[in-house]
Amino acid sequence: MNRIPFTDRLLEYSKKEITSFHALPLNSGNGLYKSKLKEHYECLFGKEYLANEVTYGNGWIDNPIFPTDVLKESQEITAKTFHTDLTMYITSGTTVANQIAIFSTINHGDRVLVDRHTHQSIHFSLSLTGAKIQYSTFVSEEESSGRQFINYDSLIHEFQSAFSKGHPFKVVILNASTYEGVINNSMSIIEKILDISEDVTFIVDEAWIAYAAFNDETKKYSILSSINEKRSSYPKLRLICTQSPHKSLNALRQTSYLHVIGDSKLITSVSDIKYKIHTTSPSYPMLSSLELAREDMVINGNDRIQESLNLVKLFRSHMEKYSNLSINSKIPKGDFWALDPLRLSVNFKNTNLDVNDVKIIFQKHDLYISRFTQDSFLLNFHLGINENNIDRLKNALKELNNTHRSYITNSTSNEYVIPYPPGVPVLVPGEIITRKIIKKINMLENCKTKIMKIKG
């Protein structure tokens, strides 16, 4: 059986010299033959990508909106891989996948119970439905990492209360994993709610943990890993799960999986809404990358994820060498929360460095870190990280650990700090040293301005 039928068909057609009278001049770079920018296009995309950026429908590759051939076959293989009734390839981002999930299950006036920590795309979509929304509350927040933890006991209680009073929630929306690296036990929450009533539809955003289902150690974090077992206990289960494979698998950006578990009515509703709001001209290379990402994980996922887990283990051990850096590992007591094993929050508070100082050090070492708080930064040990990357990170952390800011926030100055020119003090003895003042001094020093420091 061909496990990558869509990709193979796409590559087959890219080798032919096909003239398209339909659309897309970019196909094979044909529209660039007189362009002075042709070289830039080829350097940026490559001749092979341009050859596969095509738009061939039925009778050629497949209809991207109503697939009946290789794309349909590919999505069915992916559905079997994730144990779902239907899997769709989405090329407009997980934002659109979440919109499809919401608009296919929620109507005006429906009561919806929502995990407060879901992505903005869910909140914005809900605001357009006219539904009656009730949000969960936070149980706590870990100050350094910025990690927030949802009060799921309260959420389950709200569902029970509404059901008992005769105005139940039609849909429950859960966030399986947060940007900051908190993994929520979504399946446990779903089971507790289904024990109250099975007449409910779930939407679960697994954006950050598409990888989890493919490793023996991490599969417990994905609801799809145990979905067959749960369906035998809850035969009426209706669930839509969205994933962002470009965050943790080898897929192109703006791609997502939309997984559906449920009856034919739910499947039809999801399919109809996808037709209404998804692009009718998706990128074929993006579609292909979703197929390849799935098969790459089927073949290599367990070992590759284990390599990343081993890197994290070694890195945790290495962190013990630093006196001024530590790993944020605090979570509330209970069964609802865990920390993503591939994402670590590192606390740099004891260095007395400002977050801008830390960013400068990372940038100097050509290390891109996306998530910062006042006292921490987040490291994602995704499948693209290797030992050489870790060695570069260690060099930056060594510098970070050994660098101390001359000024401590909210302490009292005992000196004049005078940039020259113009010779006007930015700090005088007895003045409280604020973050704003420190930022200004750092800016002046980075600009190579001469700084005079004279004791008061």
TrEMBL record:
Keywords attached to this entry: Aminotransferase, Coiled coil, Decarboxylase, Lyase, Pyridoxal phosphate, Transferase
Entry cofactors: pyridoxal 5'-phosphate
Organism encoding this protein: Leuconostoc gelidum subsp. gelidum
Pfam name, any one: OKR_DC_1
Residues of the Orn/Lys/Arg decarboxylase C-terminal domain: 408-449
Family: Belongs to the Orn/Lys/Arg decarboxylase class-I family.
InterPro entries from the UniProt entry: Orn/Lys/Arg_deCO2ase_major_dom, Orn_Lys_Arg_decarboxylase-I, Prn/Lys/Arg_de-COase_C, PyrdxlP-dep_Trfase, PyrdxlP-dep_Trfase_major
Domain Orn/Lys/Arg decarboxylases family 1 pyridoxal-P attachment site per the UniProt entry, residue ranges: 5-326
Upper classification of the organism: Bacteria, Bacillati, Bacillota, Bacilli, Lactobacillales
Name used for this protein in its record: Aminotransferase class I/II-fold pyridoxal phosphate-dependent enzyme
Coiled-coil ranges per UniProt: 383-410
Gene Ontology MF annotations: carboxy-lyase activity; transaminase activity
Signal peptide positions on this chain: none
